Amino acid sequence: MAAKIIDGKAFAAKIRGEVATHVARLKEEHGLTPGLAVVLVGEDPASQVYVRSKGKQTVEVGMNSVEHKLEPDTSEADLLSLIERLNADPAIHGILVQLPLPDHLDSDLVINAIDPAKDVDGFHISNVGLLGTGQKSMVPCTPLGCLMMLREEHGSLSGLDAVVVGRSNIVGKPMAQLLLGDSCTVTIAHSRTKDLPEVVRRADIVVAAVGRPEMVPGDWIKPGATVIDVGINRIEGEGGKTRLVGDCHYESCAAVAGAITPVPGGVGPMTIACLLANTVTACCRANG
Ligand code: GUN
């Protein structure tokens, strides 16, 4: 039987609707408007697309959006002083520095300069530690979106075998923490994992986040498993046209899985919806 297609686009629209309602209430009842600052250094085309999309959706749900576009050769001192100003600005509740940063900038240093309470990406070392110890934190947006889709699909995740393919700080590691928090048995697989196909075949839940186009074929998937594809890879298709594909080979995985996220229209829209939700959360926490 063909897999159920998990509609991330529709789910994200529902979350944005809830965020918009919450924002309207904050305005009416408390005179508060959540504000999100996005910092982009350089001219990476993919990053520019993401940042534009974040700004547009922030405004659509009624929040304030501030974009800081900095030259590619911006010094670390200038970037850190901008972050300091945003940290001190009471109208800004969320700060996001778009990654990757140019090579001359130390990402860890920059991310850890953000006030953890405004770190809507959940990348600050304090938030990473809080998440890892099961305490209230800012949760990284992409893994949070994946978790919401999995909970919607399964109800309880307790006791399920989950394999996360990829060990990035942005997705793989926080995803594993969230699944552990929901009582899954979690394996993090990566490029050095021995017999990766066998490891993936054990999983009731597969989260693929490696950034390698169509790396996971259908014959690695346990029949009925849920496949969450975080990859967004642009490849050359027929006639020299580019097309977007995930880290999973969609057709073969969909033939075996119980449920699967498409690319595009799966995880991608959920990431920004969760960013908006995190910004509202940060605003509420900042104002008691
Ligand atoms: N680059 C790719 N994904 C992300 C993300 O979730 N947050 C930030 N800040 N940069 C990214």
From TrEMBL:
All residue ranges annotated as the Tetrahydrofolate dehydrogenase/cyclohydrolase catalytic domain in the record: 6-121
Gene Ontology terms: cellular component: cytosol
BP term (GO), one: methionine biosynthetic process
Chain ranges of the Tetrahydrofolate dehydrogenase/cyclohydrolase NAD(P)-binding domain: 140-285
Enzyme Commission number, as recorded: 1.5.1.5, 3.5.4.9
Stored CDD domains: NAD_bind_m-THF_DH_Cyclohyd (cd01080)
Annotated Pfam families: THF_DHG_CYH (PF00763), THF_DHG_CYH_C (PF02882)
Gene Ontology MF, one: methylenetetrahydrofolate dehydrogenase (NADP+) activity
Oligomer status and interactors: Homodimer.
Cited function: Catalyzes the oxidation of 5,10-methylenetetrahydrofolate to 5,10-methenyltetrahydrofolate and then the hydrolysis of 5,10-methenyltetrahydrofolate to 10-formyltetrahydrofolate.
Annotated PANTHER family: C-1-TETRAHYDROFOLATE SYNTHASE, CYTOPLASMIC, C-1-TETRAHYDROFOLATE SYNTHASE, CYTOPLASMIC-RELATED
Record-stated family: Belongs to the tetrahydrofolate dehydrogenase/cyclohydrolase family.
Name the UniProt record assigns to this protein: Bifunctional protein FolD
Species of origin: Poseidonocella sedimentorum
Organism phylogeny: Bacteria, Pseudomonadati, Pseudomonadota, Alphaproteobacteria, Rhodobacterales
